[in-house]
Write a structure and sequence with these properties.
The complex is a heterodimer of chains A (111) and B (309). By secondary structure, chain A is mainly alpha-helical. Chain A has helices at residues 2-27, 35-54, 65-76, 83-86, 93-110. The termini of chain B are far apart. The chains are: A mainly alpha (111), B mainly alpha (309).
Chain lengths: 111, 309
């Protein structure tokens, strides 16, 4: 909610500053842009950035590689390089099937 | 929530469903519902990813009917001549073969395909794994080395070759292959830990006392690098604790004892934290492999007994 309000406010400011700059260039083409218009532009852009970042629904990922890969390990048990151990291209499907059958049998006996 | 979304979120929580039987079973149980739903007709990247995963899971759990349907739709979409579909078809044929003769026929088909197109990597990989499955390890290693000589930047193949050498107890060759993987993927922390493990195992298998200590120190470096790259990598911490424990027992005369003890303590702290949080099912700590956590607990307990004695 806060992010939406911030985005709309900053968008209005940005449009306003663009309009002011346009009017200024029409009225007095020779002088440089007034300071307040420049300030308004910068402030609106900064606010817009904040609004967009605040509105991000997804969780931000850690910046540090080790923290991030540690997170993957403990949450999913599989990091970015898990495929090097799984090696689906070399999948021995018959062994996997046999393993599965054994697992099902074991679960039935256990229950 | 639609079934497509359900499957996608399941896959994002369990990125490798083939690792243990229960996740494969869960996926394959969803397969008939997905295949008969209207969402299965969507032509998006995600749908085809789901098809491939379902195919693998169904083959594993023996649901051959759903598997055939998945394969059928994949080949309708991408054509039977696509390299990936060809490999999946081969996989299906392997899984449903009933006798050795049928498997030999599949192998012959792979060889025919390769004669026409020697650069078909997925089929070459299938041929190698079928050779292995038939017990011809030597042939598989030969084929894999020749594959790597024409495409040396395939990390998966290097990792596989390493594991083949490992089963033959050719430890130096196995380590060499893992180092090749590191050249391609310098951040692969699990490969660092694996080198540590192989170094440790090969040193434990033979070698004189002095050589052994040197190898253990080498292994520690690799384990330390792996946990440096991933702060909760259980196998890295496990190896670090195990090998530093061995070195402390050997009582090195040079000034490394203090360093070993502090490393050992750090690894113990991390492992204790992992074990206790995993057992209490703390959110965000449930991804570890249960057997690995049990092994870590065992190691901690053994160490405590030694101290109390």
């Amino acid at each position: 909610m806060a992010s939406k309000a911030l985005i709309s406010l900053s968008t209005i400011l940005l449009i306003h500053s663009c309009y002011s700059a346009h009017e200024h260039s029409l009225l007095t083409p020779t002088t440089s842009l007034p300071l307040d218009v420049a300030i308004e532009t910068v402030v609106s852009v900064v606010l817009l950035c904040f609004g967009i970042v605040l509105g991000n629904r997804e969780e931000l990922k850690p910046i540090s590689w080790s923290v991030w890969s540690g997170l993957m390990e403990r949450e999913k048990g599989c990091g970015q390089f898990g495929y090097l151990e799984e090696r689906v291209g070399f999948l021995d499907i018959r062994a996997k099937r046999a393993e599965f059958e054994k697992w099902v049998k074991g679960a039935e006996e256990g229950s | 929530m639609g079934i497509l979304k359900l499957l996608l979120s399941y896959l994002s929580i369990h990125p490798s469903p083939l690792r243990n039987p229960s996740t494969s079973l869960h996926l394959s149980q969803q397969a008939p519902a997905f295949l008969s739903s209207s969402e299965s007709a969507k032509d998006t990247q995600e749908t085809w990813l789901i098809y491939e995963q379902l195919l693998l899971s169904c083959l594993r759990t023996g649901d051959d009917n759903s598997a055939r349907l998945c394969l059928q739709r994949l080949s309708d979409r991408f054509g039977v001549d696509s390299a990936r579909v060809k490999a999946l078809t081969g996989l299906y044929d392997e899984a449903t073969s009933r006798s050795r003769g049928e498997l030999e026929a599949v192998l012959q088909r792979y060889q025919d395909i390769l004669k026409e197109d020697p650069t078909n990597m997925p089929i070459e990989k299938r041929r190698i794994s079928l050779l292995l499955s038939l017990g011809r390890t030597e042939g598989a290693i030969k084929a894999l080395t020749s594959l790597l000589s024409h495409s040396p930047n395939d990390a998966e193949s290097w990792a596989h070759l390493s594991s083949l050498y490992f089963t033959q107890r050719l430890y130096p060759q196995s380590i060499f292959c893992l180092e090749e993987v590191l050249l391609i993927l310098p951040n692969a922390y699990n490969i660092f830990a694996r080198i540590g493990e192989v170094t440790y195992i090969s040193a434990s298998a033979g070698a004189s006392n002095a050589d052994q200590i040197e190898a253990f120190e080498e292994a520690i470096k690799y384990f330390a690098r792996s946990v440096e790259l991933s702060e909760w990598y259980l196998r890295g911490w496990y190896g670090l604790k195990l090998v530093t424990g061995k070195l402390i027992q050997a009582k090195p005369s040079d000034g490394t004892l203090g360093k070993m003890e502090s490393l050992n303590q750090l690894a113990t702290e991390k492992l204790v934290q992992i074990v206790s949080k995993f057992r209490r099912n703390v959110k965000g700590w449930t991804g570890f492999d249960e057997a690995e956590v049990l092994a870590a607990k065992d190691l901690i307990d053994r160490d405590e007994q030694k101290i109390s004695r």
